[in-house]
Specification:
Length: 278
């Protein structure tokens, strides 16, 4: 394929309410930004000209979040929380989240790092209530706190050391885990405290026993509410090693403050190894 030859790629949010095409040279690389918002949402950016992007006819609208003092518009689906793209009004270019592009081998792409965290004023984290879990007597457990980008949703939990190889931290390969770039830990429900549940949207898929919760305002995916666990017919389809985690409160570690991601041992699941019956 010559450099001038163009290829059309199709993409969408997870629920399909917003679909699009991009017509660009073959995609060979993408950019990962380390700023507070891009990290929380797991974005994998492709910069394109605005004329190379086209929303499908009849597609839905996207919600918009703008960082305080910022000019970029981050657009996400208000139904499923998928971050689709970002744009700066008046500029002839935009960026598209490659996690939303179909039939693309993202693992084969060159990853270019972008130091967005060094631009502008440093991001200020929010105070997170821990009064409920502080009362728990759990020797050897550590307290972890975090929040969505805008601070409307806050989580805290006690867990064995997340850096301990025996503590299960996973990057799953299911469709929604891929599109949100989830990195999940599994604190027990009674070791968990969430503030601002009313500020989340719950997105259900498949057998509808997991509520994928994201912030209504900024679109940050926060956790997976397993509620009372899966029904029997679903449980039968899930590998046994996953069963102890099915009544946990799986949390997206991207929202947790202060983690050293270079030291975090992440298990990357191969096809067929995850709990794909959600």
């Amino acid at each position: 394929m010559s450099e001038e030859e163009l290829k059309t790629y199709h993409g969408s949010c997870h629920c399909g309410n917003f679909a699009f095409t991009v017509t660009v040279p073959e995609i060979k690389s993408g950019a990962r930004c380390n700023c507070s918002l891009c990290h929380r949402k797991g974005y994998f950016w492709l910069k394109i000209g605005s004329e190379q992007f086209k929303a499908d006819e009849g597609t839905g609208e996207l919600a918009c979040y703008q960082v305080s003092g910022g000019c970029n518009r981050h657009l996400f689906c208000a139904t499923c929380g998928t971050g689709v793209m970002a744009e700066k009004p008046g500029e002839p270019f935009m960026v598209v989240n490659l996690n939303t592009v179909k039939d693309l081998d993202r693992k084969a792409l060159e990853v270019k790092a972008f130091d967005g965290a060094s631009i502008g004023e440093p991001y200020k984290t929010f105070d997170v209530p821990t009064d409920v879990i502080d009362a728990l007597d759990l020797p050897g457990y550590k307290t972890y706190t975090g929040h969505c980008h805008c601070g409307d949703v806050k989580v805290a939990f006690k867990s064995p050391d997340l850096y301990d190889p025996n503590t299960f931290v996973v990057s799953d390969n299911c469709s929604i885990c891929t599109i949100h770039a989830y990195v999940i830990a599994y604190p027990e429900r009674n070791h968990y405290q969430i503030t601002g549940t009313e500020n989340t949207t719950a997105y259900f898929m498949g057998d509808k026993w997991i509520a994928h919760r994201f912030c209504k305002r900024c679109g940050t995916p926060v956790n997976l509410d397993t509620q009372t666990g899966p029904p029997a017919h679903v449980l039968a389809k899930i590998p046994e090693f996953y069963h102890p985690r099915l009544k946990a409160y799986p949390t997206n570690l991207r929202v947790i403050n202060g983690l050293d991601w270079k030291e975090l041992g992440i298990n990357y699941l191969a096809p067929g190894e995850g709990a794909d019956a959600n």
